[in-house]
Amino acid sequence: GLQAEETKPVEPGAGLCPPHTTSCAILAVIDAIALTRGDCFFTADFTPANLTAWGFQDCQHDTTNDEFGSMLGRLLLPTLPHDYTENSTFMWFPLMPPEAMEKNLTKPGIADKYSFERPGRASGPYIVESYAAVNSIVRDHATFHTPYVPRVQQIFENRASGYVVLLLLGWTLSSNCVRC
């Protein structure tokens, strides 16, 4: 079921401001600190040799990211790429009211980097059952385009040719697939 509660008031020293029941669940029932201290993957085995260099780097605390070191937005964006924009405060600060985040981000002068609009609902999957329909969708780049082209181009900017990007996305050359 759905439970809706008002969040705690945002004030200096408040930290996260989830609803009362959520904060009790996090702090009392889960006891995250004890679980983390006793978990071998976060103690002796937390090394690049065990996690791979990429996995180890991905787990590191990065205070220069858009959420000031938090990890929740980094989990939401790849998991729900159609539900959030890359600058959404609903993604980067999901436990904070957008009005409070706008006020807090205005003080250091970085509010213009973020969007405070509520995310729209992502459309659901469509089932295509015939070869002809699939063929027409794949060839119609104006109507059916991949949302991943700009993100992949960002990754490969100045590092690979546009053909690599197109190959990774399974697209042929067209007007909306620009070379990196």
Structure described in brief:
The protein has 180 residues and is mostly helical.
Note down, in words, how this protein is organized:
This protein has helices at 20-30, 32-38, 48-51, 53-58, 72-79, 89-92, 98-106, 131-139, 149-155, 162-169. The longest helix is centred in the first third of the chain and has 11 residues, at 20-30. The radius of gyration is 21 Å and the shape is extended. The chain is mainly α. It contains 10 helices and no strands. Residues 172-180 have low confidence and may be disordered. The termini are far apart.
Shape annotation = extended
Largest β-sheet summary: none
Q: Radius of gyration, rounded?
A: 21 Å
Query: What class do helices, strands and sheet pairing give?
Result: mainly alpha
**Structure annotation, total helices:** 10
Residues in helix, %: 40-55%
- Which percent band covers the strand fraction? under 5%
Low-pLDDT regions: 172-180
User: What separation lies between the terminal Cα atoms?
Assistant: 46 Å
Instruction: Spell the H/E element sequence.
Output: HHHHHHHHHH
Mean pLDDT: 75
Number-wise, the strands total 0
